[in-house]
Amino acid sequence: MALIKSKSLFTSLLILVALFGVSVGGTVHKVGDSNGWTMMGVDYKTWASSRTFQVGDSLVFAYYKDFHDVTEVTHNDFQLCNSSKPLTRYQTGFDTVTLTKPGLYNFICGVPGHCDLGQKVQIHVLPTSLGPVAAPVPGPVRSPRSSSSPSPANTPQY
Ligand SMILES: *[C@@H]1O[C@H](CO)[C@@H](O)[C@H](O)[C@H]1NC(C)=O
Ligand SMILES: [Cu+2]
Questions:
Q1: Does the beta carbon of 84 lie inside 6 Å of ligand 1?
Q2: For the segment 2-53, what is each residue's pLDDT rounded down to a tens digit?
Q3: Domain count, the chain
């Protein structure tokens, strides 16, 4: 009897995890979409303004690591394109940055000149909405898997 009870409790927990796991995992935003993280041809301000970022979401920066990097800087250094005092620097060519707190994140490319050419993006992160109803709205866009590439995890594409 007790066994059956705890089993069904366990099952219920599994179902709960399955139901809420998706929203807890957050949305993955590939910076620049198919263009990736580049110094030419992408208006990252427009890209960022078309999206909503929440705590728990993550950013993916895809680029050629020989040519670029991802440098998180202060708001002031973002305006100045000055990467000499990085808060964090990512250099793998395929970096995932989890947005763990609300507020403004400032990313630039630390390679001289690139930020000035527009390789910079500011991400305004909103607190997680804990309301049970609010979360599922952006459903169609949320797929973390881009259908074109079979194994996106470790493949630098730009
Ligand atoms: C960047 O900031 C550092 C330290 O604040 C300063 O020494 C340097 O001159 C700045 N570089 C540029 C290109 O403004
Ligand atoms: Cu660059």
A1: yes
A2: 444 555 543 443 333 444 444 457 999 999 999 999 998 899 999 999 999 9
A3: 1
